[in-house]
Amino acid sequence: MDKINTRPNKHISLIGGGIMSATLGILLKELNPNFTITIYERLNEVAAESSDAWNNAGTGHSAFCELNYTPQKEDGCLDIKKAIKIASSFELSKSFWAYLVKQQYFDKPESFINNIPHISFVWGDDDVAFLKNRFEALKKHPLFADMIYSDDVSELMQWMPLVMQHRLSNEKIAATKVDIGTDVNFGNLTRSLFTHLTSLDGIELLLNH
Ligand SMILES: Cc1cc2nc3c(=O)[nH]c(=O)nc-3n(C[C@H](O)[C@H](O)[C@H](O)COP(=O)(O)OP(=O)(O)OC[C@H]3O[C@@H](n4cnc5c(N)ncnc54)[C@H](O)[C@@H]3O)c2cc1C
């Protein structure tokens, strides 16, 4: 990212001490280190609301397992635009975090991002047909090339033994799996981002405000 030192100073106010302000604050300081920023947080700590790990699911949203990102149109075809947009955005997020680690702004990426397979599991004729269509439509795109599909009971037992326990053998089931999914602890990430941000000149973090 090029630093644009020639731009005039600006003072920026960010409301809320969650992942959004932490990310935007760092982006702004990367673009122009002369910017001064005040962050207002009504609570007595950062990352205590939605960004806290206990308050969200922690899935790195890449549309690998979020079935709502590929809605079915009236003609039965699947619209995969949103899935591709979200998967692309998440690749940008990962590039941004990798850049921050490379800059040594924080040193333990495993404290906030870890690899975990993303599985979508469905049952019943309609949903199995939907998942198969979704798989066929997505796998052609490079971002989803690692996705695999199965309706084979013995294979599904290996993918997710607990989910498969005590299931009826005549039940129609299927799943897709992507091994390169991620689990993200947005709370730890937010705290790490704020630790770096508040070490920079011109940054004021006001808690209980
Ligand atoms: C149940 C659930 C599951 C989720 N699962 C996922 C997931 O798996 N993957 C994913 O990527 N996302 C997930 N999300 C979404 C994700 O958690 C949020 O998009 C993200 O944390 C929002 O960050 P934020 O900084 O906007 O909000 P927050 O982290 O909520 O931060 C906002 C801050 O603003 C403060 N504030 C509010 N009003 C004021 C004010 N007037 N003055 C000062 N401070 C104020 C609050 O106290 C809070 O600290 C989930 C969300 C929920 C609720």
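Residues 15-21, 40-43, 48-51, 55-59, 61, 186 surround flavin-adenine dinucleotide (CB under 6 Å).
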